[in-house]
Every structure is written in structure tokens, then in C-alpha cells.
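Hi there, hope your week has been kind to you so far. Do you reckon you could talk me through the fold, stretch by stretch? I've dropped the whole record in just underneath, so have a look:
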Amino acid sequence: MLLIERLGWFAQLLRWAGLCATGLLAVSVAFGDEPIAPGGRAPSRWQPGEVTLIRDRYGTPHLYAASEHDAFFGLGYAYGEDRLRQVLLSYLQVQGRLAEVFGAGSLADQPGLQMPATTVSDTVASDLEARRLRYIEDARVNFDRLPKQLQRNLRAYIAGLQHYMYEHPSRVPEWAPRLEPALPLALLAEMMTLDFRGICDSRLAAGDASGHSSKQSNAWAVSGARTSSGAVIFSSDSHGPLQTEFGPAFYNWRMKAGALDVLSFDLPGTASFFFAHTDRFAWGWTEGKRNVVDCYAVRVEADQPRQYRFDGKIARIEAVPYRIEVKGAAPLTGEFEYTRHNGVRSVVVKRQGDIAYVLSSPYLGRWGLAAGEYYRMALARDRGELTRALADREIYPANLVAAGRDGTLLYIRPGRIPMRKAGVDPEQILDGNRSATAWRGVHSYSELLKLVDPPQGFISNSNVSPDRMYADSPFRPQDYPAYFGFEPGLTTTRQQRLLELLGSPAPLTEEAVKAIVMDSKLPGTEHWGPAIETAAQASCGEARAQSPEMRKVIAELRNFDGVFGKESKAALYFAMMRGELTMNQPAAVDDIVVAVEGSKPLSLSQQCILAGAVQTITDALIERHGTVDVTLGDVHAIQSGAMKLPVGGVSFFAGRDLPEHMTRGTAPARFSVADTVRKMVFNSPQWVTAAPEVLQSGQRIPYLVIFTDPVRSYAQLLPGISEDPSSKHYSDQTDLASEGRLRSTYLDLRELLQNAESQRTFEVTRLKK
């Protein structure tokens, strides 16, 4: 490899990237591109200042280096290869500069961007939000509070990304922002606020302050005493849209460098360890109700709109001028307003007459500090170090499940939860003129909701209230403050199924736990076959002879085993029938579901409604396909680019407003939801058209960790590692989804080399300032 030493080139790189102004480490690079055949060799040891980037057969980057910062340089370069546009757009967004670059309106209308349907719909509103919440400003301040090594790592990550951009100028868009190491922190902050930005508006509109997220996930862990190998086993899977605002929802990478040995499912552009496992611990998240933000109504003085009384004393609203540049239009100017409620810089998000609505959260002003906690989690070598990292309480405030090679099983809600006075309901708009509604501090780590090494030998939370984590849960809502986020009785069909599978007395084998991750059986379906058969014989007014096709449908439903496999006809019939009831029989569906799944007889009118639903779906299948011999996979597919493959798993509206003990989660319009462990959401909720449906949301990063020595793990990343439709790695993991199969993550270097696609070594020389 030839060392690049030309100072003219180096100075040009510094000018182009703006490194001198940002204070980043200067970097010179020597590199070689060495495609390797299966069985090829890589260095057994890496020299200081060197990082090797090996890509496996799915394009996943594996970074090997002697030091962390060298590996992070390689990570930045890999991001440039795979997700450059997505990362740069995300950084523009947290800087509040989308309107400046693209003008007002939706990014979907921008020629050449080819944005997902879920992209930013109002660039000006996005910029105002980013500036008002101070993502980048606070991230810059808090960067210096991070561990020194992490600061060096993030500088190296940005340098690696910049080097890729220098090396590939044709791929760099003209709107590329100036990069700095605070940007990953700001982006991590932006993603943490997704659920509470509009909380004041939602409470004003509907009185709904639930704090419950519509996103769903699975996370579970099993002790070694319950596995055939004696090893702790962990699994997690984030459920949500496969495509977010600027591209695929997650990015997967592995790093072995210095003290780090970690595989991460990263929020793209954050260079963090959000969902991750190391050689010692693994962790993942499920969404759940939380109360980490309050909305205050503050009455201002009639003649002084920037003053208000707090316990009778005058307090002032801080005004900060802003200027939002808008391409092709006049700049938008104004002032952001802030109060000091609860000792934090709280945000005025709305004014109505003499009322200012103020959003207050203990995370405000702390943007970026979560990165330090994730980093310390990734470095933890024992339970004590993991506990000390979690005690920082800077990270995502949802349900965290973690497991360790040392036998640790842990469930916790690890966020910063404000302490409220008895009687203060944070799910309502609060009086912001009195200290009676103010926080009494933030709960300590010891006070948080947590469960360690339960006697059941396993932990599972699939978006359920803690009191429903087991049939006999140790959590009782009355033992905790009312604002701790219990939703008594709330469970999901995914949790019911996992309790059945994980609680089995038989030792769990590796093949068994892989099957659990991809399980597609829906609890409760066994009650429906007999009810449908009885309903089909009912006398429902005008007699209608059953066609041979309808008899086929009834026979399949009578024998349905509840497994929503892609090859199953009964699975399609069942989902369509339930969809027909929910969407077109709103007055009757809940009572029918409660009766059938409670093994109670249906009335004659209910039987006729059920029989009519079966007739309707039979007619729909014939109209669309000319036959009822249609499988779930014929109708439901995963698609990415030109690739479209059949897929199993299901999620559908089960009723309109089922009683608490029947509730399967939440969805828009208070529908109740039924879904399999392998949750799959398609592009139409109605399920009555029998038209082809494309996977939109659901299982997207299922992964499984087995803490043998050495540790092994398996995963999928949907749809693939690359954002480029012309890349073979754009959608090459969709076949895994179709097959319901996990792939090895190639943690072992020898296995990686047997499945390697390319290898590249960078020689990174850090020049001290």
C-alpha cells in the first residue's frame, strides 16, 4: 500500500471537509482494496493506526482494529459506502436546514431524491422543531461531557465518513452539510423525542396524554437452566416501518477493537449501540407507556405576554431569535420561547390567547449524553459495570430487556422519570403557574421499575403492562406511583404466545429458540373453527345454499392450526374473515370475539353475521383470483425493488374496542390488534379485498444471541444493508424473511472469512494538534 503524503492533497481535504474549524483529528490514509475468496486470510493482529473492513456475504461491515478510534474511522467509511444519502439528510434535519436546501414543502416532491412515503412532509415545520428543541446546540455542549475515548471515536467516525466523501466526490450531493462529531448525538436525540414532541397538541385535541407508543417490539431472555446447552439465550426484534423518513430503519455493523467487541443494530447515522450485543451482554427494547414529559398551561400577564406568575411571583419567558432560510422564498424569522419549569429549559410549543403551552422533560438540555451510557454498556465486563452504566438514566425510557453470559436476566424501564406530588396526573395538561404541579426531582436508579433474575427463569416483554409479564407477575400497579406507566391488564397475543413457548418444561434447544423468533402461531384460533362450523348451519332468513367453494373455506377454517405460514390457505381465510368482521360489522365484532374466545355460544344473529363474513371472503377470493385455492403467501409479500417474495406472519385488527382482558395492543381509532410473535403488517388493514399486500411494517431486525463460549448470534436486517437500489445488498435479506430464517452474524473470524465478500485495510495516522 502506498502512503499518501502529499501535503497539498491533505490541505485540500481539510478545506473541503472543514476539519480545521470543527477541531477534528486530522487523518492521512493508506489503503488497498483486496477482494478475497472464501477461505482467504486476514491479519491475525492489527497494528496501531490500522483498521480492516471485511464485508460478509450480506455486505455487513465488520471492523477489526487495535484501537477503538481506528475502528470508528472504518465505521464512518462503511456508512459512506452504504447509507451516505440517508445519513447526510438526517444530519441536515437535526441542524434544522432542510428548507434552506430543498425549499418549503415535502421531500417526496423533490426530484432525484426518491424518498420513502414516510419522508418529511413539511421541511419548514421540521426545521422549526429541530431548532426549537436545540438538538445540535445542546449536543455540541454535551459532547465534552462524554468519555474522552468516545469523543475520539466520534471524531474518527466523522473523519472516516469525510474521507469516503473525498474519495467519491461524484456520490456527494451538492447539498451535503458540513460535518461535525456532535451530529450523531443530535440525531440520537431527535429519535428519542419522536413520541413526545406533539404531546401538548394531542392532549388539547383529545385529552389523550397516555404516553403510549404505537410502535411495538419483542424482547426476551432465557436462563441457562432452561436451555439444552446451559447457555443464556437472548432475543430482540424491533417492530415498525421498514422504511423511515430517509431510508431503511436500521444499520447493522460489527466491531472488534480495543476493549470493544460488539454487534450493533444502529439507528442510522448515530454510531451508537441502541440494539446490540457484546461478548458479555445483549440488550433490546420494546415500547411501552412512559411519563417522562409534562405539558403545562401557563397563563401569562395580560399586558406582558412574556411574563407569568409562578406561586404569585413574576417569572419571565426567555425569547431566542431564529432565522430559517427557505430556498426560493424569504427567510422565516421569529423567536423561540422557553421557561424554566422544573429547573430545565422547557419549550413553549403553542400559544392560545393568554395561555402558553410548555413542554417540560428531564431529557431537555441533555441531548447526546445517552451516547455515553450506551458506550459504557458496550464496555461492561460484569453485572456491576452494566448496572453503573444504566444508573446514568440517560437512555431511551421504554422497556429494556438485557441478558448476560454471567447468567444475568434483567428487565428495567431505565429512563429519567420525574417525581410528582401525589394527585398530580401527568397524563393531563397541568397548571404551570403553581409549584404544586412541579417535579420533586428525578427517580433514582434504585427506584426504577426493574426485575432481576426472576425465579421463572425467563423474561419477556412484548409491549405489555408489567403486571402482565407473567401469569403471576411480581409487579403490582398499586406498589408504584400512578405515573409509572402501568396499563393494568394490557397484554398482547405475542406475549401470550411467548409465555407459552418460554415456559415450556422441555429444555430449549438452539433450533427451538430460532423457531420462537420466527413463530407464526396466533393464540386463541382454536375456538373459531367450531364456532364457524356451527354458524354455517344456522337458519339466517333467506336460505342460501353453500357453494363448493364456501364449503372448502369452512373446512379449512374448521381445521386451522393457528399457524400463519405463507403456504397456508386457512391462515388467509382466517385473517380475511376477522378483517371483515372488524371493518364491516363494527357494532357486533367485539361481542362476537369475546363470546368465541371465551368458549360461549353465539346468538342466532351473531351466527348469521359470522356465516355472512365467511360468504363475503369466499366471494372476494373468487372475484379476485377465480378460486379459493389461495394461500397467505399468494396475497402477502415482502418487496424491495424488483424482488417480491411470499412471507408468513400476521397482524390484523381484532375488534373495535375489546374489553381490557381481551386487548391485544393498541392501534389507530382504538382498534384492538392480534398479531403473531413474528409480527407482519401489510399495506391495507381491511383484509377483505384478497388483493396482493406488501409488507410495510413489523419484524425488521430479529436477532438471537446464544452465550456459549464463544458467543454466537443470528439475525436479519430488512431489507438489506445498502440504500442503493442498484446494489445487490439493497434487498438481499428479504429472502431470509420469506424463508423465516436467521443468518449467522459471523462473529468468528474464521467463519467470517469463509463468508467474506471483500476486505479493505486503512492505515490511519492521527496527527496531533
